[in-house]
Design brief:
Elements lengths: L1 H38 L1 H8 L2 H25 L3 E6 L10 E4 L6 H8 L3 E5 L10 H7 L2 E2 L4 H13 L3 E4 L17 H9 L2 E10 L17 E7 L3 E2 L10 H22 L21
Parallel strand pairs: 1-7, 2-5, 2-6, 3-4, 3-5
Antiparallel strand pairs: 6-7, 6-8
Helix pairs in contact: 1-3, 2-3, 3-4, 3-5, 6-7, 7-8
């Protein structure tokens, strides 16, 4: 019995060591791949296409690149994934809102949505490797002027493009309550679009705001992504109520859906003597 336990302990140590190495390798692959695309494929697309066509093609390339990165992490045994209701993400012109527990939430969502816009940090406009790709893709800078940000996001949605937003604004540290800002609701109300709540649950947690990249969980992290039915923002625009009140109600609805997704997700099991085998990536990712 003790020999079995020692072997199991050794197997767990080897598994964890491999996942630390694999996580570092995946970060390197992400950075190198991004740099190569930025200096080769993206400039060629921009030179050969109009601004609008180039943006669409670059977003398509990024979608495929994120799919490849998810496949790479799955192949390394770093995480596993199940998605419920993915077909609800495919209709254009929607505002997709999601909670934000881990660093790679946007990677998952961009891999699931074929042509999506997102709000990115203003600092990327000063990054020599990423400035032009995010400009050419048509992504929206996270301006300090909230009115400008809401206007730009609403224009994107009214043009028929899909937009991904994290209402929390940043990753919520583990153990702290989720605090949603009303910016996402204000965008939806300004655009009069449908809102698609997406719950992201990672068990055990990894790549949180509180953890360095090398602090991997004891077993393979499993992501459960639940896409809820869309709701029209116009349903929250009632007579005799200000946009501020409507945004408050819509934000509360988003929070309730995120909490519901967390309750629906299967709880992670941490076996004492064996590592978890990653589940298959769903077909169509």
């Amino acid at each position: 019995m003790s020999t079995v336990m020692r072997m199991s302990t050794l197997e767990r140590a080897v598994d964890r060591g491999w996942r630390i190495f694999g996580t570092g390798l995946s970060f390197v692959a992400f950075g190198v791949g991004g740099a190569l695309l930025s200096f080769t494929v993206f400039p060629l697309i921009r030179l050969a296409s109009s601004r609008e066509t180039a943006g669409r093609r670059i977003r398509c390339v990024l979608h495929q690149a994120f799919r490849l990165h998810i496949w790479l992490m799955h192949s390394f045994g770093l995480n596993s994934l199940e998605v419920h209701g993915r077909e609800r993400l495919l209709r254009p012109g929607q505002l997709i809102v999601a909670n934000h527990p881990t660093l790679i939430d946007i990677v998952h969502l961009m891999a699931l949505v074929p042509d999506a816009d997102c709000v990115v940090k203003r600092g990327l406009w000063r990054n020599p490797f990423l400035r032009w790709p995010v400009v050419w893709a048509g992504y929206i800078p996270n301006s300090s002027d909230s009115e400008t940000l809401v206007r730009d996001c609403a224009e994107t949605l009214r043009s028929g493009r899909t937009l991904i937003v994290f209402p929390e604004g940043t990753r919520t540290p583990p153990g702290q309550p989720m605090r949603l800002k009303r910016g996402a609701a204000q965008i939806a109300l300004a655009a009069g679009c449908d809102v698609v709540p997406v719950s992201i649950v990672c068990q055990p947690l990894t790549l949180t705001k509180a953890d360095p990249w090398y602090r991997v969980p004891p077993v393979t992290a499993h992501f459960t992504i639940t896409v809820f039915p869309p709701v029209s923002a116009r349903a929250y625009q009632r007579e005799n109520e200000t946009n501020s009140i409507a945004a408050r109600h819509l934000t509360a609805f988003m929070a309730a859906q995120f909490a519901r997704g967390a309750e629906m997700a299967p709880r992670a099991q941490l076996p004492a003597t064996a590592a978890v085998t990653p589940r298959a990536v769903p077909p169509g990712l």
